[in-house]
Design a protein that fits this description.
- The structure holds two protein chains of two kinds.
- Chain A has helices spanning about 5-15, 25-45, 50-70, 105-120, 125-135, 150-155, and strands at about 15-25, 70-75, 80-90, 95-105, 160-165, 175-180.
- By secondary structure, chain A is α+β, with helices and mostly antiparallel strands.
- Chain A has one domain (about 5-180): 2-Layer Sandwich (Heat Shock Protein 90).
- In chain A, strand 5 (about 160-165) and strand 6 form a beta hairpin.
- The two termini of chain A are about 30 Å apart.
- Chain B is of the alpha/beta class.
- Chain B has a domain at about 1-5 and about 40-45 and about 55-125.
- Helices cover about 40% and strands about 30% of the residues of chain B.
- Chain B is built from three helices and six strands.
- A six-stranded mixed β-sheet of chain B has the order 1-2-3-4-5-6, covered by helices on one side.
- In chain B, strand 4 (about 60-65), helix 2 (about 70-85) and strand 5 (about 90-100) form a beta-alpha-beta unit.
- Classes of the chains: A alpha+beta, B alpha/beta.
- Chains A and B meet through helix 2, helix 3, helix 5 and helix 6 of A and helix 2 and helix 3 of B.
Chain lengths: ~180, ~130
């Protein structure tokens, strides 16, 4: 890898990737990348509305990794309160896209797929109603967020959000979500 | 009752609630890591404030450039407390301020407005 970094960089650039990040995700990292992302979009005279949508999906995805990634930083054999994941933000054919991935446990898999399939089948009006209904509901007990993140993303994206849950050689699965703005 | 104040940070808004003047102000951005935890003291303050209120009118100014989905839930909860007070006869005016080029902030304000009946919820373009 050490000698391939230039190739790696050029490949990312060639594919229209603006940001790529892999490793431990924290709130302060999110704030830093988020600010730079807004600056970059501003310089390129992206409309406020598109910038807001990209920023919003970015925040929801990063906070999902922080709250739900099943891969944690380990020091001396002990799991720390630090979540790992991967994120790329790019632009293709005039559309921004954000792709995010992290490991999930077998327990997370079923409810996650169910929730995302439900959201995927909804049009914008149904999403709005579902969002408002969930917003007034008490949060699920093990949920650290409000359970609104994916609905919010689907409402901000210009196409239905795509997701896949990939089996790995470990007992954990790999969860990938892609949003096109 | 004491003033409730929080300085603005990158991911949390400036909050200034004055119980003497009955003015509540929130401005900035809201995407803390844990919205429920961050806003819990603010909601507690509001509940205590509403309980000791006698006959005064409440004015609220809120200007949010961006807020994440978990903050949205907290704000709904917040407005519902004001809605409940308004239902008991307290006059509550909420001014939702937004910049003309921020369609999303406007839309978010409209969606809160649709869900509130008792409070006077106004959209104010800056």
């Amino acid at each position: 890898m050490m000698h391939q970094i230039e190739q790696f960089y050029e490949q990312l650039r060639h594919e229209g990737i603006i940001f790529s990040f892999s490793g431990p995700v924290s709130q302060s990292l999110l704030e830093g990348i988020g600010e730079t992302l807004r600056q970059k979009m501003n310089l390129e005279e992206t409309s406020t509305s598109v910038t807001q949508k990209v920023f919003s999906i970015f925040v929801e995805l990063m906070q999902n990794v922080i709250n739900y990634s099943a891969e944690k930083g380990v020091i001396g054999g002990e799991e720390q309160d630090l979540s790992l994941g991967v994120l790329i933000i790019g632009k293709q054919e005039n559309h921004f896209y954000i792709q995010c991935g992290n490991y999930i446990t077998q327990d997370q898999k079923g409810p996650l797929a169910e929730k995302l399939n439900k959201i995927k089948s909804m049009d914008k009006d149904e999403l709005k109603r579902y969002y408002k209904q969930q917003r007034r509901k008490d949060p699920a007990e093990q949920s650290k967020g409000a359970g609104l993140g994916f609905i919010e993303m689907a409402r901000k994206a210009s196409q239905p959000i795509q997701f896949s849950i990939l089996p790995t050689s470990t007992e954990k699965d790999f969860f990938v979500v892609t949003a096109i703005i | 009752m004491e003033v409730f104040f929080r300085e603005k940070t990158k991911s949390t808004p400036r909050i200034h609630f004055d119980p003497e003047k009955h003015r509540l102000e929130i401005s900035g951005e809201s995407y803390p890591e844990n919205s429920a935890k961050f806003y819990s003291p603010m909601l507690q303050w509001l509940e205590a404030y509403l309980q000791q209120l006698s006959n005064e009118d409440i004015h609220m100014d809120i200007e949010l450039i961006y807020f994440n989905s978990s903050s949205s839930k907290v704000f709904m909860n917040f407005f519902d407390l004001l809605e409940e007070a308004a239902g008991k006869g307290v006059s509550v005016e909420i001014r939702w301020k937004y910049h003309p080029d921020n369609d999303i902030a406007q839309e978010c304000g409209e969606e809160f407005q649709e869900d509130l009946q008792q409070v006077a919820f106004h959209l104010v373009e800056l």
